[in-house]
């Protein structure tokens, strides 16, 4: 069966087989808006597809046989780069409530949906905390944080254990970051999709690890946290004076057409400078710190312990140097 026929088959199955079992088990994604303390419900692009893929046995079959594969994400990424895809921008902005006054270009200036997707912020649209003892978020998104990385296994489905050796694909690095601190920033499709440096430091070249293209939505992670060990990912090491060596991971996901690194390898970079961007699709940035180097802000840790994400913005304080 050709790839196109598989795609057509998958779409047909999604509409025919989707049933009430999915709706019964499916919970809306809630998060805490840090600035106000409000609990909000996330507007999810493709929510029906997520219900099918993660809460329906037939959907799970499609997920593990077709959806996770590179060709599907590549195909959709190319589709979102075509000129006709720009017709989707206006309705997407309206549906998701995106404030376009924060961005350099108006809707009319984008040549495709992908061009819009990795849009640039206006100068000053994000306030960056330049205190030298502070770590800031590298991206806009929803954050989870674990002061000790071993705590992760307490929060997710048994059998989906996360191991540093698999994550790094490197035994020595796994040992180096053992009992370290982990910060996960999930970028939804409506978010700003460029990522930045959380502190000053010397950045290495990028290391690429091949893998699948599972969704990194909250629904996917709840059922299988090992996705982060299985998906395509890239990382670089940011060497710093105050915070040790920070491993910066950029994670691929379903419908992510690519990860573009815009920084210069083996150079000194400043907090808030751009590191790169994702092409179409939601994705994730992960920071891994060595043991006893940082203290993550109390509210973020407490929200994580309560199994709820916190809304964060690029440049916003997420932790301090550990004294």
Main attributes of the structure:
single chain, 323 residues, alpha+beta, eleven-stranded mixed beta sheet, three-stranded antiparallel beta sheet, 12 helices
Shape: globular
Mean of residue pLDDT values: 81
**Estimated radius of gyration:** 19 Å
How far is the first residue's CA from the last residue's CA? 60 Å
- Secondary-structure element sequence? HHEEHHHHHEEHHEEEEHHEEEEEEEHEE
Question: Strand tally, please?
Answer: 17
Put simply, the count of helices is 12
Instruction: Note the main sheet.
Output: 11 strands, mixed
Helix content: 25-40%
> What class would the helix/strand composition place it in?
alpha+beta
Q: Could you list the spans in which at least 5 consecutive residues all have pLDDT below 50?
A: 11-25, 46-73
* Fraction in beta strands: 15-25%
Give me the secondary-structure topology.
Elements: H1 3-17, H2 20-25, E1 30-33, E2 38-41, H3 47-55, H4 57-67, H5 70-79, H6 89-96, H7 113-117, E3 134-136, E4 141-146, H8 164-168, H9 171-176, E5 181-187, E6 194-196, E7 201-203, E8 207-209, H10 218-223, H11 227-230, E9 233-239, E10 245-251, E11 259-261, E12 267-269, E13 274-278, E14 283-289, E15 294-296, H12 298-305, E16 309-312, E17 317-321
Parallel strand pairs: 1-16
Antiparallel strand pairs: 1-2, 3-17, 4-5, 4-16, 5-14, 6-13, 7-9, 7-12, 8-9, 9-10, 10-14, 11-13, 15-17
